[in-house]
Amino acid sequence: MAGLADHELCVWIIPPPMSILVALDELSDHGLNGPALQATKQLQISSAEDWYGDGGFDVDHSLKRLAALPPRARQLGYGSVRAVGGPGRFTSIESRQAFMRFERQATAFIAASPMIALCGYASI
């Protein structure tokens, strides 16, 4: 909610099994109008499958999507980006290893960008 209050572009990559409808309900439970925030493009919600790809994981593609966020924020009139995401359902050891490579490179990019980001993992 802090990113919304601070007029930042907010990106929420929801991990499975959460759906966008559930995410919008969660926002509503906190007094936020998710559809209105999406209409202004301040809030962008995407499933992990849509963001990363379903099943596999493409490091270069995901890094390009991440790198596009700060320019997109400026284009929309927001000063910075606040993002939170969780990994998708990676179906192979190779895709999980690729995601970890992405995280290492993404950490360096985020540290040098007008961005705050958090990767959340489900507890088991």
List the helices and strands and how they pair.
Elements: H1 2-5, E1 9-14, H2 20-29, H3 34-39, E2 43-47, H4 48-52, H5 59-67, H6 69-76, E3 81-85, H7 93-111, E4 115-119
Parallel strand pairs: 1-2, 1-3, 3-4
Characterise this structure.
This protein is an alpha/beta fold. The two termini are 26 Å apart. The chain has a four-stranded parallel beta sheet with strand order 2-1-3-4. Helix 5 runs parallel beside helix 7 (93-111). The chain is globular. It is built from seven helices and four strands; from the N terminus they run αβααβαααβαβ. Helix 7 links the parallel strand 3 and strand 4. 49% of the residues lie in helices and 17% in strands. The model has no long low-confidence stretch (mean pLDDT 87). The chain has helices at 2-5, 20-29, 34-39, 48-52, 59-67, 69-76, 93-111, and strands at residues 9-14, 43-47, 81-85, 115-119.
Number of helices: 7
Unreliable sequence segments: none
Average pLDDT works out at 87
Helical residue percent? 40-55%
The coarse overall form would be globular
What order do the strands of the largest sheet run in, or round the barrel if closed?
2-1-3-4
Total strands: the figure is 4
Distance, first to last CA: 26 Å
